[in-house]
Structure prediction request, 435 residues.
Amino acid sequence: MVSKKVKSILARDKKVFLTTTRVPYPFIVDKGDGDFAYDVDGKKYIDFTAFVSIYNLGVNANAEIRNAMKRQMDKIMHVAFTDNYALLPVEFAEELLKFMPKGFGKMFLSNSGTEANEAAIKFSKLFTKRQYLLGYYNAFHGRTAGSLSLTSSKLVQRRQFGPFFNAFHVPFPYCYRCPFNQKPGECGFACLDFMKNYTLGKEVPGEEVSAMLIEPIQGEGGYIVPPNDYFKELRKIADDYGFLLIDDEIQAGYMRTGKFLALDNFGVQADIYTMAKAIGAGLPLGVTITKSSLGDIPAGSHATTFGGNLVSVAGALEALKFIERNKEKLHDEIMKKGAFIKKRLNEIAKDNALIGDIRGIGMMIGVELVKDQKSKEPAIKEREKVLNYAFEKGLLLLPAGTSTIRIIPPFTISMESLEKGLDILDDAIKVASKG
Ligand SMILES: Cc1ncc(COP(=O)(O)O)c(C=O)c1O
Prediction:
């Protein structure tokens, strides 16, 4: 039942805002804390979304982080950090570098994921003096012109927005739906052969490519995890042609997979990393971190008014300190909870043919729904039913890709809330599979 209050806010919202993506259920948030979010009618929901992978340390962050933000707010909020100097962003950068691989020394601060990627794209051009870009089909890197050129997860995100940058897309190793109809583990990476023989063999000379933008696990595109050795092979191709790898850690990073950088699960290093979402602990912050050996960029070539906003950075620094103090414990919790979620999903899948695939690392888990296990026809309406049923029963879930559900609770979620949420999801899948 949608309350009068909710109906009225939805109607007012529709009048004043242009349409955006929005969840398929009428959730109007009032407040949040720990495992839960509450709507304007005071109803409590278990959060399996971290509000799109932001609240990794609990809904609305934690008191220490909020207090750091409040203290900074009373001192000074904004200094236009790309024009003026301040100590706090320096402390934040020094702290962040402790989590990065050796040899990463410089960064640029902005306000969002797309901006972090825009900066990475521009820097790669400055560093290599080359102009072309490579990316993946099904990727999501943001919606401003440069990032959008490499985003290709849904047509609606690109329709009428061209012409795009000089970006070329190659197939991602989406083994559940292999674009080359190969069996996982038996193909010798047909997708990389395609890239070498066709994209780089006939379309764009590899020595004119400045960078390739990758997501270590495709997020918006459907929570797609590549095979273990895939990125090692990609790294070799990048090195052969001398182009840079830009690793977009915006959704998968910041401990979500148990490691600070999701790419570390694949034993490979990038040349530039981008982070946003969770790194701001609830406030807008984007970060582009470059390998020291790439050098610097010319003064005046890139900047942004709000980058390094002091309130954002105060929260981000406190959150990083929290992670540093609790790194081992957090890692173990994430792996334990992730395994618990997967075990339960596998049990649900035993009696329910709606679940086609369960995949993910740590607490970044996707459940792909299909109408039929053999044809793998995406169960789009059924997914909508699952999301809506779960919402009615007090569980927040998000979609990804065509028919996948993402499960990305805050790491700090209690086992009790996790179990309750999975019970609701179990019921929701049962109800949706009955049509
Ligand atoms: C992997 C990835 N990159 C980039 C972005 C864009 O981030 P923002 O919405 O902050 O611009 C997103 C957002 O969902 C993302 O998941």
